[in-house]
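Private note to self, pasted from the team thread so I don't lose it. Backbone tokens:
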């Protein structure tokens, strides 16, 4: 067993200073990190407990009409917050689709952003081939069990998917991740927070060493009337998405004036279906238009031996989610 030290950070500055050393990681709810440590997948030398930093769990209104969700806000508290339910129902639905009630009560928004893939081989520390866990060792999923893996944006180094439901909704809402680190504060547009695997699948995000997520900022609500988070999975609860869709529309009568579509379960990061969005804008919400638009989302899909079903499933899920968002289903 490896020795691990633990320190409770009294404030953000102390947390950042402590985490600027190699092998030091933050712990909040711990719902993913502790699993990884118990399995020998994560081997930190020190845990910095950030749960006592004042103010990081607050949810507050922003002057522009948006919402700031503190990084330590619990998933269940955020999902059930009146402002989130009323103004960002897409996000509330995504939270409630994730994990179990017990896990949502512990898990934090910042930790949800940092969730690691559920690839079977990544979680089995006894399995030698995994570029994400053991860089340069290969990818067992390429020729192995890859039913839950990516069909978009993968690389020969890694075909894992991001497991977060919350992040799919945040991608559609174009949230901003605020971080504080040794070089100061910065705001990361959501599309730039998670990475595609490329030749560094060991890196899930663009965070730098020592950077602490302080909040997720939501822009003013545009889609409260017409949005839907649809998750397709093997069982009705406590399962990760095979495919999920966050659909957010602005409508003028039956016509879509603007659309945001993000997919989960198909790529190493939440996947924006921008061509689908462009095709839907300015058009009446008909089944034929939707099917053509959904096909664009998977035009560049590259399925593997066991996950070809996701190509059709993603299209059907887009059609259903957008119809439900638009009130025509
Ligand atoms: Fe590892 Fe990624 Fe391959 Fe899974 S898909 S075995 S996480 S390298």
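Design output:
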């Amino acid at each position: 067993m490896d020795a691990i030290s633990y320190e409770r950070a009294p404030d953000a500055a102390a947390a950042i200073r402590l985490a600027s050393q190699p092998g030091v990681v933050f712990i909040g709810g711990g719902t993913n990190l502790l699993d990884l440590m118990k399995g020998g997948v994560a081997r930190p030398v020190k845990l910095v407990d950030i749960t006592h930093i004042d103010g990081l769990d607050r949810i507050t209104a922003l002057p522009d009409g948006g919402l700031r969700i503190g990084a330590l806000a619990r998933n269940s508290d955020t999902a059930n917050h009146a402002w989130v339910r009323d103004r960002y129902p897409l996000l509330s639905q995504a939270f409630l689709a994730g994990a179990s009630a017990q896990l949502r009560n512990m898990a934090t928004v910042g930790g949800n952003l940092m969730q690691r893939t559920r690839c079977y081989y990544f979680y089995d520390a006894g399995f030698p081939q995994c570029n994400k866990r053991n860089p340069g060792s290969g990818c067992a999923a390429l020729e192995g069990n890859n039913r839950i893996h990516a069909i978009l944006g993968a690389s020969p180094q890694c075909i894992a998917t991001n497991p977060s439901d919350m992040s799919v909704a945040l991608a559609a809402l174009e949230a901003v991740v605020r971080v504080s680190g040794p070089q100061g504060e910065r705001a990361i547009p959501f599309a730039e927070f998670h990475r595609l695997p490329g030749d560094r699948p060991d890196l899930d995000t663009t965070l730098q060493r020592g950077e602490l997520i302080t909040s997720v900022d939501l822009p003013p609500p545009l889609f409260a009337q017409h949005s839907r988070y649809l998750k397709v999975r093997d069982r009705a609860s406590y399962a990760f998405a095979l495919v999920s869709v966050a659909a957010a529309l602005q409508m003028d009568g039956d016509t879509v004036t603007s659309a945001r579509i993000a997919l989960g379960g198909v790529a190493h990061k939440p996947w924006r279906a921008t061509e689908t969005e462009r095709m839907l804008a300015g058009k009446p919400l008909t089944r034929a238009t939707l099917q053509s638009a959904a096909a664009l989302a998977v035009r560049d899909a590259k399925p593997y031996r066991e996950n070809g079903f996701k190509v059709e499933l993603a299209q059907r899920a887009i059609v259903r989610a957008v119809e439900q968002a638009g009130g025509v289903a």
